[in-house]
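tl;dr need the bound structure. longer version: we got a ligand (zinc ion) that a collaborator sent over and nobodys looked at where it sits. i said id run it. heres the input, straight from their email, havent touched it
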Amino acid sequence: MALRNIREIGDPILNQRAKEVREMTPNLRALVEDMVETMRHANGVGLAAPQVGVLKRLVVIECEEGELHVLINPEIVERDGEQTGYEGCLSVPGKTGIVTRPNHVKVKALNENMEPVTVEGEELLARALCHELDHLDGHLYTEMAEELYTNEELEEMQAEEDEDEA
Ligand code: ZN
């Protein structure tokens, strides 16, 4: 296993549509392992293959420790409700945006053994599923963020909120 280099905003590969995965190969298995390791090392809750420079429809998501989802050729088949909240991306370092997403989604995909799986999620998992699947179509959350803050701005805002509450 190895850490992969995470591509950052401005890299054209992040704006391209990723291709369907037709079969699991030793190379793809290694990619899945490396993506999981890279996501965990970066303290992310999800990572899509284009973010490590591979245009394949493959994402890994781990919103809660030990609940790893490996999703190949994923598709959202249901979406309900709405949530507006903070969102960040390992490809957009140092920034956080406010993004509205469905509060609940259902995704159909294949797992790392190319077996059909269904993942249903609310709140953070729903947000992560939408965010990672957007990467496969070449979209970053910055395109749909209502507001975009630097981490410094966010810290100042939170400090002010704390003052108001005091
Ligand atoms: Zn992202």
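gonna send this back to them w/ a short note. The longest strand covers residues 69-80.
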